[in-house]
Design a protein that fits this description.
Elements (H helix, E strand, L loop, with lengths): L12 H8 L13 H15 L12 H9 L7 H11 L23 E2 L20 E3 L15 E7 L8 E12 L3 E5 L4 H4 L7 E9 L2 E8 H8 L6 E5 L7 H19 L1 H11 L8 E3 L9 H18 L9 E3 L5 H9 L1 H13 L7 E6 L2 H5 L3 H16 L2 E6 L10 E3 L4 E5 L7 E6 L2 H16 L8 H11 L4 H14 L2 H4 L9 H12 L2
Parallel strand pairs: 4-6, 10-11, 11-12
Antiparallel strand pairs: 1-2, 2-3, 3-4, 4-5, 5-8, 6-7, 9-15, 10-13, 13-14, 14-15
Helix pairs in contact: 2-3, 2-4, 7-9, 7-13, 9-11, 10-13, 13-15, 13-18, 16-18
Length: 520
């Protein structure tokens, strides 16, 4: 039987060319062989995931050959991370890798990387080129049209360790800025073009400024209500707050990736939750990935997170005092789940309320090694800061260690006599949960978390002070960030990145921005 056109195998030239650029470590003057690349990937796995049993992830020359021949396009997130590290690239797209469930064709087309020349009144906030890629499959033309043209293209919101990658349709129009940003829509059918499209779509207005180009964006469903009865030459008002910069780019990137996966897996998530129900009454469980094998990586994050949150709630009765929480998020991609998963915001609010009447503050701790920060784009680092700002806004203090020795700690809730383990990020299984009151186990974890708290790189007596120290550690301009958050907190992100999935909400990211904007 002939293959369906969408499943035709094509060589992955991006990967083979990337290997050809690397020198052989054993044969001077020659290119790296497939065996040598496999060895380098295995060594990178050991460096990137210390303390983990990675036997199932190790690769050989045959695996590299399958990738280069295009027989396999979507290895595990650990293997993709190691490949990116060895070949010195930032995205899976750079390696010709993509999820067949998400892509109808290989993303080997020419891609224009577009980056804002500045960010308007606060020029320190710039988007990273690897989080929004503007490109065309047939031309190498610039994204931005001339003053009398409009362009209709797709924007790539690339994948990451967990994100599968998504596309956003965009329509780009010339705009003027006289204190208001007004984009000129030169189509008679302007009111029909954005009538609730299935695909996420943005309307962009670009303004030629003296020191570069400024681009402002509006969700197509918002544009529809403004242009439903408009004709040729209509002018669309785009709020200035929706200028594309590092904050708006990061949130848009996260929403697009999370939204697409959860929508496509909606029915399967219900089935997976039903399969998980027998585990709910167990004191401890480690569900194998078989229970989520049909789910995308984002959906696996969602079900693991939801199960662990429910597990912790069901064991609050064993806690005798205010607990300390240890969380495993290290990058903005992972931290965005706190900002956008609806159940995580409910969980944070319930947790804060549970212990609000006590005099001792509740603390959540993170391990952010310097390597993880250095290899994160500016928008991802902002997502990390926003996630911690959300916690601080609820009265939950945050602490951060840069010591990589703590990477292997599982997700924990700890009081003086009890430990609740709930791990779902970077876990070998879909989740791993357990409860212990063994004195030596509890004492060992208390010593570790006590050391983190005593040596936190963000230590301060106030929420604003802790977040400012965090901004410094993440190399972010706190004052410019605070100004943008104040504006975005007033408007909210619904006009730019409204989720389609019932499992997502913008309430968390909006609350984080409002909180930062109100700090002294």
């Amino acid at each position: 039987m002939p293959r369906h056109p969408e499943t035709l195998i094509t060589p992955n030239t991006a990967l083979s060319e990337g290997r050809a650029r690397l020198p052989s470590p054993r044969r001077p003057g020659q290119r790296m062989s497939r065996t040598e690349l496999a060895d380098a990937v295995n060594a990178a796995l050991d460096r990137l995931y210390p303390g983990r049993d990675l036997a199932a992830h190790y690769v050989d020359h045959r695996w590299v050959g399958k990738l280069e021949r295009g027989e396999h396009r979507w290895p595990s997130c650990e293997r993709r991370t190691a490949l990116r590290h060895v070949l010195g690239v930032t995205t899976d797209t750079d390696l010709g890798l993509y999820s067949p469930r998400r892509s109808r064709s290989s993303p080997t087309a020419a891609v224009d990387r577009w980056q804002m020349a500045h960010s308007g009144p606060r020029p320190g906030l710039r988007p990273a080129g690897d989080l929004l890629q503007f490109g065309s499959s047939t031309t190498g033309k610039q994204l931005l049209p001339s003053s009398d043209q409009s362009w209709f293209r797709a924007v790539s919101a690339p994948g990451g360790e967990h994100f599968p990658g998504a596309e956003i349709d965009v329509e780009v129009y010339p705009a003027t800025d006289d204190g208001r940003v007004l984009a000129t829509i030169g189509h008679v059918d302007a009111g029909q073009r954005w009538r609730r499209p299935v695909q996420r779509r943005l309307v962009l207005g670009h303004v030629d400024a003296p020191d570069g180009v400024e681009v402002f964006a509006l969700d197509s469903r918002q544009a529809y209500w403004c242009l439903v009865a408009a004709g040729r030459g209509a002018r669309l008002l785009i709020p200035r707050v929706y200028q594309l910069d590092a904050i708006t780019t990061g949130v848009l990137w996260a929403v697009a990736n999370l939204d697409l996966s959860l929508l496509l897996d909606d029915a399967r998530l219900d089935a997976a939750q039903a399969a998980a129900s027998p585990y709910r009454g167990m004191a401890r469980s480690a569900a194998s990935r078989d229970i989520t094998e049909d789910l995308d990586s984002v959906s696996r994050l969602w079900i693991g997170s939801a199960f662990c949150a429910d597990y912790i709630r069901s064991h609050y009765d064993i806690l005798s005092d205010v607990p300390i929480y240890w969380t495993r998020e290290q990058r903005g991609e992972e931290a965005s789940t706190w900002l956008l998963f609806s159940h995580k915001l409910r969980y944070l609010r319930e947790t804060a309320e549970q212990f609000r009447s006590t005099s001792q503050p509740m603390t959540r701790m993170f391990c952010l090694p310097e390597q993880a920060v250095a290899t994160s784009s500016v928008p991802e680092r902002i997502l990390l800061l926003l996630a911690m700002a959300l916690m601080e806004s609820l009265g939950i203090q945050t602490a951060v260690t840069d010591d990589p020795e703590y990477i292997a700690l599982p997700g924990l809730v700890l009081d003086q006599r009890h430990m609740i383990m709930a791990t779902w990020i970077r876990a070998d299984d879909a989740w791993h949960v357990d409860v212990s009151d063994q004195p030596h186990t509890v004492a060992a974890y208390r010593d570790a978390l006590g050391h983190v708290q005593a040596h936190s790189v963000t230590a301060d007596d106030t929420p604003g002070g802790r977040l400012r120290h965090l901004a410094d550690y993440l190399s972010l301009d706190w004052h410019r960030l605070q100004g943008r958050c104040a504006d975005l907190g007033q408007y909210g992100f619904a006009g730019l990145a409204e989720p389609r999935s019932r499992l997502l909400s913008l309430d968390g990211v909006n609350q984080a921005c409002r909180f930062i904007g109100t700090l002294p």
